[in-house]
Amino acid sequence: MKDFQSSIVDAVKNALKGTEGVIDGIDGIQANLVEQISNELNEQVTLNNLKSKLAVLFEYEKNYLELVKEYKEEIKFASTIQEDLRKERAKFFSDTLQEVSNTLSEAQIDNEVASRWLKELVGSYTKSLDLSSGLIEEHTLDMIGKIRSEAKSNKASVDVSNITKKGE
Amino acid sequence: MYQISLKKVNKENLLDVLEVFQEGRSSLVLRFTSEEPELFGNLFEYEENTNLMALVMEKEYILWINEHFQIFDKFCGRKENSETFTLFKELVFKLIENKIIEYNANNDISSKDLCISLLQDKREVLQDFIGVASKNERNYKKLLYSYQKDKVLFDREFKRLSRS
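^ inputs. structure came back:
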């Protein structure tokens, strides 16, 4: 496939067809003219293309920002409950477990028995935490799905032709 | 594997269920940190009997599952929100399923059959629930009295194993 620059050169050459020999030295002048017109046209078209692309990009970004703004509270909510659960998990392993271990030890529960119960407690506690975490995760994924689907539906209205129409 | 359907879950329902489960975890820890007399009594009484100690553990777990229903009733019972109940039910269902899978994979658990049968009963009652609308029906009462029922069945099992 011909590149864009060659197409412009061909178009200018065609436009100047028939002018050869009208003026002395026209061939050399024509070659310069073709090159100059081609370069200018190419610059102009490239600039227009860039402008269109930037406009599309701007529209995309604008839509995403609007979506994020619209879902700000939802995103904040999901992030807060995830953070709370992470803190609870960390606290369980850093403080609670030690507290239970101390109580068992102070009550003079047999070491082996205490160790089995601590293991059981970790299993039950983390099972419950994991289920809660799974629930939050599904809620978050559900929200991301909604955002994606809205972004997709907005995408159709953001294309070069629509941007060009707006600019006209 | 059982999947949670979140199609109609709103923030309030989600927070309610998370709160019930958090309360469930707190009550689990509290039984230890408060030196709950019945539990600690068992820890001393059966310290040399591995089978009975394992049975105490299973009893604790199953009673803990039951406790979730009491907590739910305390926190969300008045709201009569069927979506919250459905979500809660599905999560408890998973808690039960996980334990049944664990029992089935482990042949060392004493009174495995009793534990599986208790959990299966609970699972069946749960499966019959459609929403909180059926709260006044027999099934809901069945769940609420299961706490006492399971305790008695465990006590019978303790006596049986102690005699043998």
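Chain A has a mean pLDDT of 83. Chain A touches chain B at residues 77, 81, 85, 88, 92, 96, 99-100, 103-104, 107, 109-110, 113, 116-117, 120-121, 124-125, 127-129, 131-132, 134-136, 138-139, 142 (CB under 8 Å).
thumbs up if we can close this ticket
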